[in-house]
């Protein structure tokens, strides 16, 4: 008998390496250039690259005389393309320990704050799709910004798809831990190189150094 009836994973930083910061910033600059803004302020580039809220997007777009939805569409398209290019070039890789997921019982999923299309690309590109029964990323819309973790919107959908009553969510950020607990799931926080010294204000159910530790937790 297994301890958990489903295991759901974050994607970036858990299954595959996270995007390089400069790649993210470069994608935002490309989006601005597409819309005729050659030298956007550094804080506008930074704020659009990570965890931007709709009100901040509105303010940045208004500053440049742009429609917020138009700016966001360009941002999403350039960001998506930059990620595809990084994977194809080999500058972002799948983690070796992802193979341990095959040792877990069936009923597995992926929930990411990244675009749904980018999650689909990664699962296909690294031939990971057979490992999972469902996956969710966010839509490439302004509205999706309010649905990102720690909101449980996409995690709830995955748990429902898996018909799970006692799921485990595996992530590499504080928002992953918060989302898991809000959704009624236990959490496993992965201490990879980029999170080795991360200080959390919430306590995950487990901390692991590698996905190879999960079979001992789940089974």
UniProtKB/TrEMBL annotation:
Gene Ontology biological-process annotations: DNA repair
Organism of provenance: Halogeometricum rufum
The name this protein goes by in its record: Haloacid dehalogenase superfamily, subfamily IA, variant 1 with third motif having Dx(3-4)D or Dx(3-4)E
GO molecular function list: phosphoglycolate phosphatase activity
Similarity-based family: Belongs to the HAD-like hydrolase superfamily.
A Pfam cross-reference name: Hydrolase_like
């Amino acid at each position: 008998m297994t301890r958990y009836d489903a295991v759901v994973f974050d994607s970036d930083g858990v299954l595959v390496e996270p995007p390089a910061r400069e790649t993210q910033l470069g994608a935002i600059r490309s989006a601005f250039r597409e819309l005729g803004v050659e030298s956007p302020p550094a804080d506008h580039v930074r704020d659009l690259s990570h965890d931007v809220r709709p009100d901040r997007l509105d303010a940045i777009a208004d500053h440049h005389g742009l429609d917020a939805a138009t700016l966001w569409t360009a941002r999403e398209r350039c960001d998506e393309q930059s990620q595809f290019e990084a994977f194809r070039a080999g500058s972002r890789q799948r983690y070796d320990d992802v193979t341990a997921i095959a040792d877990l019982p069936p009923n597995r999923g992926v929930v990411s704050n990244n675009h749904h299309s980018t999650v689909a690309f990664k699962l296909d590109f690294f031939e990971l799709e057979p490992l999972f029964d469902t996956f969710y990323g966010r839509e490439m819309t302004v509205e999706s910004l309010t649905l990102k973790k720690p909101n449980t919107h996409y995690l709830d959908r995955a748990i429902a798809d898996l018909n799970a009553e006692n799921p485990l969510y595996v992530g590499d950020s504080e928002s992953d831990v918060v989302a898991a607990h809000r959704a009624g799931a236990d959490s496993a926080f992965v201490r990879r190189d980029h999170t080795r010294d991360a200080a959390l204000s919430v306590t995950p159910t487990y901390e692991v150094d590698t996905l190879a530790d999960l079979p001992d937790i789940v089974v």
